[in-house]
Write a structure and sequence with these properties.
The protein is α/β, with parallel strands linked by helices and 260 residues long. 46% of the residues lie in helices and 16% in strands. An eight-stranded parallel β-barrel has the order 1-2-3-4-5-6-7-10, surrounded by five helices.
Length: 260
């Protein structure tokens, strides 16, 4: 019996409290960093009433667009964390593809430059208009949260502070017409000046107080991220490793409710 099966049997114990707002669920995303298709779909089915977005990256490489369609069939939102980075013509193809597929959020690297990002936006807008659908939010990855100043300065040969580089890339994303950025929790307040009021901020690497940051180097608590203006918290191991997935998700939702 799998952990997902065991946890599903405990639904009565971890039912949704009547006072839990739907808006809190829309600010929570679960990273589906798993290889087994049945386990992935089992988690979606188990948590679809608690989680606003389900994120795929390596699972997409393993199972392709059909997995995305199967997740969407559960009536949930899909975040395709593809971190696209290629020549503009290729990004235009991706813009068409992810819009046609029905994704709700797609990431691309700001390091590809203005022309690359704009190509994705134009193609996604065109496809959405042709199909009569809403295009996905196109969100720019500023710097991976595993990048610290040593990595930035030495490995990437970009001098200066991490925060300055994140802000520069955030402004570039806005100029290109993207809908938001991915950044560390502590960086939102630093990059907000000059960005659109409705910009969408995704924060990976958030933790409950006392939890480990694992391989994320620029981290913060859920509360700090939300207080700073995070639109979406991305969690993975906190829920995957829990004996009761639903209870773990509810605990995070309570943290969100306390700040909202």
């Amino acid at each position: 019996m799998t952990a997902a099966t065991t946890s599903r049997q405990e639904h009565e114990v971890t039912a949704i409290p009547p006072d839990l707002g739907a808006s809190s669920r829309e600010r929570l995303c679960l990273a589906l960093d798993l290889a087994d298709r049945k386990e992935i779909l089992g988690l979606v089915d188990e948590l679809k009433d608690l989680i606003g977005y389900f994120k795929v990256n390596s699972a997409f490489t393993l199972h392709g667009p059909e997995l995305v369609r199967e997740i969407l069939d559960h009536g949930v939102k899909v975040f395709m964390d593809l971190k696209l980075h290629d020549i503009p013509n290729t990004l235009a193809g991706y813009g068409h593809a992810v819009t046609s597929l029905g994704a709700h959020i797609v990431t691309l690297h700001t390091g590809g430059g203005l022309e690359m990002m704009r190509a994705a936006v134009v193609a996604a807008d065109r496809t959405a208009a042709e199909l009569g659908v809403e295009r996905p939010k196109l969100v720019g990855v500023t710097l991976l949260t595993s990048v610290d100043r040593r990595t930035l300065n030495s490995d990437l040969n970009v001098q200066g502070q991490v925060e300055d580089e994140v802000r520069r890339r955030a402004l570039l994303a806005a100029e290109a017409g993207l809908d938001g950025i991915v950044c560390a929790p502590s960086e939102i307040e630093l990059v907000k000046p000059g960005l659109p009021d409705d910009f969408f901020y995704i924060t990976p690497g958030t933790r409950s107080p006392g939890d480990s940051g694992n391989d994320h180097k620029r981290i913060g608590t859920h509360a700090d991220a939300l207080a700073g203006g995070s639109s979406l918290l991305v969690l993975g191991r906190r829920i995957h490793r829990a004996k009761d997935h639903r209870q773990a998700a509810l605990e995070v939702l309570r943290e969100i409710e306390a700040v909202a």
